[in-house]
Write a structure and sequence with these properties.
Layout (H helix, E strand, L loop, with lengths): L18 H13 L2 H4 L17 E13 L4 E12 L3 E7 L4 E9 L2 E4 L1 E5 L4 E10 L4 E11 L6 E8 L5 E8 L20 E6 L6 E4 L3 E2 L2 E2 L12 E4 L2 E6 L5 E6 L8 H17 L8 E7 L6 E2 L4 E5 L12 H17 L6 E3 L6 H18 L6 H15 L14 H6 L3 H18 L1 H14 L3 E3 L1 H7 L14 H9 L17 H9 L5 E8 L2 E8 L16 E7 L2 E9 L3 E5 L7 E3 L8 E4 L3 H12 L5 H16 L5 H8 L8 H19 L4 H20 L9 H16 L3 H16 L11 H8 L3 H13 L3 H11 L5 H13 L8 H10 L4 H10 L1 H8 L4 H11 L5 H12 L10 H30 L10
Parallel strand pairs: 1-11, 17-18, 18-20, 21-22, 23-29
Antiparallel strand pairs: 1-2, 2-8, 3-7, 4-5, 4-8, 6-7, 9-10, 12-15, 13-14, 16-17, 19-20, 23-24, 24-27, 25-26, 25-28
């Protein structure tokens, strides 16, 4: 492969002042006999996945020439190196590319290097016949060539269709985590930071953008950064720009016909970059920040320094046709990527085992920043859901610690999961509540200032958050922090966590980051005495797996006697608290600011149920949501009986707040989803009937309009969609009438945005309605509208349509392949489609892992999404038999497969234990009036 001459290498003549000399040397190197340049005979001189630390890059000069007709690219990389130990070997990364004309540019002159390849680890060895001396600097130069990738990573091709049907092509990059090595030879590990000077050769009809601004023909040299943050795009995009208060130019790039959907994102990016500039007290270090909407993009977005890339749905917003949740989603994703410009880009984890330092922080900062910059979005209403999602994965024995050792690219990819992002954010939120927001802010500014342009490990963060007032790292000018430190010695019982011990942030946080899972705290109230004990919450029938876990838990609690939040750090397996007086109820983990669950033993749950039934607003909606979540989770491990959890759910008929309502649905709906996979229509319909009755009052009060706050609008969409899918007559009648009017106008009348999902879902039930919706989908340029139509089409009972959609999404002509995972998972949620989705996943497995990459969150999302509602031994055996037939190369070692087995086993156990109880309870609470097939 290395000696292939498919791509003739040329150096651009305007490259460097020494360019003529280089040309002569390239010719000389090219004339060198092949065995001087390449050799397959010699053993590869390095046997580890991680690169040696003998040399490190200081600066890359890159010339890249993509060809959007032949879909390949050529280039030259010139890398300046620092030598830390005498060596005659340079090991770096290159993946699936032809390498040629490899030269060493040493002070003594230029000479060719011999090249060996180790494809298994994506490594090249450059062998010199003389020693590179410690302390000296050298340069190596490599010609390289490859095809533009067909996947969504590396330097890959993307396309879009104009409104006239013309297909246009572009090329874009996605290098996180280990894909820069597929675009140019490099030291592709986050700790090898360097500066990059990039030059793109392109046709006049295209533009090129990269991390830095364009200076005449080159992009300005970057700041010191990791390879995974390098980015460049060659396209026919247009852009719109504004300047922040701090003088940074912000531009949004999109395909020409969608440039009018960029105004909202542009304003949000300006507002958020200014916010972070002030919050972190470190000026954004680049002159510009571009945000580009890429037509083909696998993840949600990527934080490349100075050129963040997004899915079109993550950036484009149409004021008339986008929904409240679109607005929320777009601002969150921009807030996330811009937070990374500091957390991740300026200060980078040393290795992927601490990915959470990047991702947990960015996820957490979405909520901190939007709470201040966009208070009307009420992001607080949605944070808890992230902690519940993390607990879902973290309650399995196949979970992993937030900080966990990883070596190969598949394991690195698997780190991009709910544990790194959502659990990371939730434990940071707990720490902020614990230290107070002011102390937390001082500590993270200290961390960012101390480690700018460097790499860090977990403990660096904990050190920065400890003894913040003793540090001299902060500028004198930060008045807020001086005030905080001068006030700190004033005692306050409510905000004091610990007696006189000095707070050891690292000792506390190591228990949350270095062991997997989370604690279940059991509370027993005996008069004024409160007995506490902790254990690992784990969905398993093997008790030995919960042994040996101990957390330092920042407990918070309030009681019926006092709304003051009391605090207590539980460091031991058991402990006792004393209340000043006897109380009717006690609620631990106030607002669920802590990442733990609480079980109220003895009569504890009954007193909470009484409180919810008589005066549910005595607790916040976050508290109510966490109680709903916890009581049903405790049923899974046999701590609480199912009828107790169902008794608690009865209060939901009076609930109006989004977090508690959606959590109620989140616990009750899966119960009938499990039954849909077993043939038991009578009980299934009884369960569906119970849920419709429970929320009937709230559903009936919804207006079919776009009025109200963001949370009210998101809830309206949710409730009306549920009611229509469940065949609730008033909803079906209204949605049918609106769909028919919309269809009669050929889609010209505009429906209220919040109700479109409910209307589309009802319309998609008939072949004519489905076909009409598909036609509108195909011709729409509005990303959020397309997204809603696509989801509605997957909810149809028409199996031939479901099958066709999955096949079309795989082909990628009419429906983008990037949307395939959502289509497959949505079809698997459809009672008419779950077998089709499983058959599709099996039949196309090898294509999918090639397109979406082993270990990626996309593959994991499909595997768990398609299988996690199975509840029979037959399906478990079928799933085991398929995944068991895979080899390591085709994914047998992926964590998501273990999670799938565990989830199905847990479902089977749940059904075996609880079906009789469920039947008896529903019979006792039989609702009035018949329910046809809900």
């Amino acid at each position: 492969i290395l000696t292939s001459t498919k791509f003739p290498m040329t150096l651009n003549t305007a490259y460097h002042s020494g360019v003529c000399v280089i040309h002569a040397l390239v010719k000389q190197a090219a004339a060198t006999p092949p065995d001087r340049q390449m050799s397959d005979k010699e053993p590869f001189p390095w046997d580890r996945m991680r690169l040696p630390k003998t040399v490190s890059p200081i600066h890359y000069d890159l010339i890249i020439h993509p060809n959007l007709t032949t879909f390949d690219f050529t280039g030259v990389a010139r890398i300046e190196l620092d030598v830390h130990e005498d060596t005659s070997v340079i090991i770096l990364h290159a993946k699936q590319m032809q390498i040629s004309n490899v030269l060493l540019l040493a002070p003594e002159g230029v000479r060719p290097l011999q090249v060996l390849e180790n494809p298994r680890f994506h490594q090249l060895a450059l062998l010199s016949d003389s020693v590179l001396t410690k302390g000296r600097k050298y340069e190596v130069q490599l010609g390289f060539a490859a095809n533009l990738s067909d996947s969504y990573h590396g330097f890959y091709k993307s396309s879009y269709r104009t409104s006239t049907g013309e297909v246009r092509f572009m090329a874009s990059t996605q290098f996180e985590a280990t894909f820069a090595r597929g675009a140019f030879p490099c030291f592709d590990e986050p700790a090898f930071k360097a500066n990059f000077t990039i030059r793109i050769t392109r046709e006049p009809r295209h533009i090129a953008i990269s991390n830095m601004r364009l200076l005449e023909d080159n992009f300005d040299t970057t700041v010191k950064m990791s390879t995974y943050l390098v980015a460049y795009i060659v396209s026919d995009f247009l852009s719109v720009s504004k300047t922040t208060q701090h003088g940074v130019k912000i531009s949004i790039y999109a395909v020409p016909e969608k440039i009018d959907q960029t105004a909202f994102a542009l304003d949000a990016a300006v507002k958020l970059l200014d916010f972070y500039d002030d919050y972190f007290d470190i000026p954004y270090p680049l002159p510009k920040q571009d945000l580009a909407a890429i037509p083909d993009f696998q993840s949600g977005a990527m934080e490349n320094w100075g050129l963040t890339t997004y899915r079109e749905t993550g950036l484009l917003f149409d004021a008339d046709r986008s929904s409240a949740s679109d607005k929320l989603g777009i601002t969150k994703v921009i807030a996330h990527e811009l937070a990374h410009q500091w957390f991740g880009n300026l200060v980078t984890m040393e290795w992927w085992n601490d990915l959470w330092l990047n991702e947990g922080f960015a996820k957490f900062m979405e909520y901190i920043s939007l709470d201040i910059t966009y208070p009307e979005l009420h992001v607080d209403d949605f944070f808890l859901g992230k902690c519940f999602e993390a607990m879902e994965v973290d309650s399995l024995s196949s979970s992993h610690p937030v900080s966990t050792p990883v070596e190969n690219p598949m394991q690195i990819q698997e780190m991009f999961d709910d544990v790194s992002y959502d659990k990371g954010a939730c434990i940071l939120n707990m720490l902020r509540d614990f230290l107070t927001p002011e102390a937390f802010e001082i500590g993270i500014i200290q961390y960012l200032k101390r480690y700018s342009y460097q790499n860090t490990v977990n403990s660096h963060l904990w050190e920065s958050l400890t003894n913040i007032c003793d540090s001299d790292d902060l500028d004198e000018g930060r008045m807020k922090h001086k005030e905080f430190c001068s006030k700190r010695h004033v005692p306050s019982g409510a905000s004091k966590w610990y007696s006189d011990d000095e707070l050891d942030v690292r000792a506390i946080m190591d228990t949350w980051t270095l062991q997997e899972g989370f604690p279940l705290v059991t509370v027993e109230v005996r008069g004024r005495e409160v007995r506490l004990s902790q254990e690992r919450y784990l969905k398993t029938d093997d008790p030995s797996l919960t042994e040996g876990f101990l957390w330092q838990i920042p407990l918070t609690y309030m009681t019926s006697a006092s709304s003051t939040i009391h605090r207590f750090l539980l460091k031991t397996k058991t402990d006792v608290l004393y209340l000043p007086e006897e109380v009717d109820w006690v609620k631990f983990n106030v607002d669920m600011s802590g990442y733990y669950m609480v079980h109220y033993a003895d009569n504890g749950w009954n007193s909470i149920i009484r409180l919810l039934q008589h005066n549910h607003t005595a607790l916040t909606s976050n508290d109510r949501a966490s109680l709903i979540h916890t009581v049903f989770q405790l049923v899974s491990i046999g701590k609480v009986r199912l009828d107790t959890a169902l008794e608690l759910s009865l209060y939901l008929s009076r609930e109006t707040e989004i977090m508690a309502v959606t959590q109620g649905f989140g616990e009750l709906v899966p119960l009938y989803k499990l039954m849909e996979k077993r043939d038991m229509p009578a009980l299934e319909n009884q369960m569906k009937g119970y849920i419709v009755d429970l929320f009937r009052g709230l559903i009936d009060r919804q207006e079919w309009s776009d009025s109200g706050s963001v949370s009210e609008r998101v809830l309206r969409s949710y409730l009306l969609l549920f009611a229509c899918v469940r065949n609730y007559t008033p909803c079906v009648t209204k949605a049918t009438q609106l769909f028919n009017q919309w269809k009669a106008s050929d889609g010209k009348i505009s429906l209220p945005v919040d109700i479109t999902m409910a209307v589309f879902v009802i319309g998609a039930r008939t072949p004519e309605g489905w076909n009409f919706l598909f036609e509108k989908y195909r011709n729409s340029m509005q990303m959020s509208v397309k997204s809603r139509m696509k989801t509605a089409m997957t909810v149809t009972p028409l199996q031939d349509k479901l099958k066709w959609m999955m096949e079309q999404s795989l082909r990628g002509d009419v429906m983008k392949t990037q949307d395939l995972p959502d289509v497959v998972v949505s079809v698997s949620r459809n009672p008419h489609g779950f077998k089709l989705a499983w058959d599709f996943l099996r039949a196309n497995w090898h294509t999918l892992i090639k397109k979406f990459d082993l270990g990626s969150s996309t593959i994991s999302y499909m595997v768990t999404g398609v299988t996690n509602q199975y509840s029979t031994r037959e399906m478990l055996n079928e799933v085991r038999s398929f995944f068991g037939s895979l080899t390591e190369e085709t994914g047998s070692e992926m964590r998501c497969i273990q999670q799938t087995y565990e989830t199905i086993e847990d479902n089977i156990r749940w059904m075996d234990t609880n079906l009789p109880l469920l039947r008896a309870w529903l019979d006792k609470h039989r609702h009035k009036g018949p329910h046809e097939d809900l």
